[in-house]
UniProtKB/TrEMBL annotation:
Its EC number is 1.-.-.-. The keyword ATP-binding does not apply. It is an enzyme of class 1 (oxidoreductase). It comes from Rhizobium puerariae. Keywords: Oxidoreductase. This is MsnO8 family LLM class oxidoreductase. Residues 18-295 form the Luciferase-like domain.
Length: 331
């Protein structure tokens, strides 16, 4: 048995604006609530003409106001850019506006090109240490609901009835260990890293070091009444992975973006590989067969599915098709 949730990056439709993209995201969240999905998350991407969600906490608040039951959260806030105290304040405020419905997902990547990262971190004296930030964030969240707050720390108000549920997003055993060590939920980003062995090791690491707690698995998925139609839609999707001379690598949606990333990073040499993104596709039945296999194999009890950027109507239809079976058999 497994539950389904959704992640949306607010893709901007070709020839349309961010206004349309964000409207599509809100409509998708409403439909997800109607269909019985467990949670609806939005992403954080910067300096991108293709993706409209640059400030997930703002979009979360709007979706909370336009829904009434579904959990809503960030998938995720890119912590390296922000003060942990401010992130705690924002999500405690959201948790006070919609008690029991807010998820705080934290990501480790920059979520944008080097120029955007530099702008976001312009007033930092040095590159932040993620684990130190992560520890501070937990401390601020805990202190806000403690019966006897630590007087050496400011309280990240307002004090919510309960803080947001906490999730660390990652795609490595190191991320799994960090989540387990701090008592957070772990979401393996299978939509970004589909390597089966890395997936296995990461999920097993989290279960072992968290005392048996199952991880959540995020995947890209697209369903259609016709498997051939689903394959045709997904065949148009591409990912361009750029490898820099300093050992860094990152995947982007267009070759021009990959080249621009290398330029902004100051790389003297780089190479770009065109790849097919890892997207589960086919009929709803075939996708659920694979989800059931993964659930049994790794003990996964929840999947967060990202509909790919194939058009608003197609994405909505996919979400509806995938909801039919879990509502009766898995939710």
């Amino acid at each position: 048995m497994y539950a389904l949730s959704l992640l949306d990056k607010s893709p901007v439709p070709r020839g349309e604006s961010a206004v349309a993209a964000l409207s599509n995201t809100v409509n998708l969240a409403k439909k997800a609530e109607e269909l019985g999905y467990r949670r609806f998350w939005v992403a954080e991407h910067h300096d991108s003409a293709e993706l409209a969600s640059s400030a997930p906490e703002v979009l979360v608040s709007w979706i909370l106001a336009n829904t009434s039951r579904i959990r809503v959260g960030s998938g995720g806030v890119m912590l390296q850019h922000y003060s942990p105290y401010k992130v705690a304040e924002v999500f405690n405020l959201l948790s006070s506006l919609a008690p029991g419905r807010v998820d705080l997902g934290i990501g480790k990547t920059p979520g944008g090109l080097p120029r955007a990262t530099a702008a976001l971190q312009a007033y930092r004296a040095a590159k932040p240490d993620f684990e130190a930030q992560f520890a501070d964030l937990r401390a601020f969240l805990d202190n806000a609901v403690a019966s006897q707050p630590d007087e050496t720390r400011p309280v990240a108000g307002p004090r919510p009835p309960v803080t947001a549920d906490r999730f660390l997003l990652g795609a490595s055993p190191d991320s799994a260990r960090l989540a387990a060590a701090y008592g957070w939920n772990f979401v393996f980003a299978g939509h970004l890293n589909g390597d089966p062995e890395n997936l296995r090791i990461s999920l097993e690491t989290f279960r072992r070091e968290s005392g048996g707690k199952p991880a959540i698995l995020a995947l890209a998925a697209f369903a259609s009444e016709s498997a051939a139609h689903a394959a045709a839609q997904v065949s148009e999707l591409k990912v361009f992975k750029v490898f820099l001379d300093n050992g860094q690598s990152v995947s982007l949606g267009r070759r021009e973006q990959a080249e621009e990333f290398a330029r902004q990073a100051g790389a003297k040499e780089y190479r770009i590989e065109e790849r097919k993104p890892s997207v589960l596709h086919g009929t709803a039945e075939s996708i659920h067969e694979e989800l059931a296999r993964l659930s049994k194999l790794y003990g996964v009890e929840e999947f967060i599915l990202e509909p790919p950027a194939v058009g608003a109507d197609e994405r909505l239809a996919s979400v509806e098709l995938l909801a039919r079976k879990p509502l009766s058999a898995a939710a």
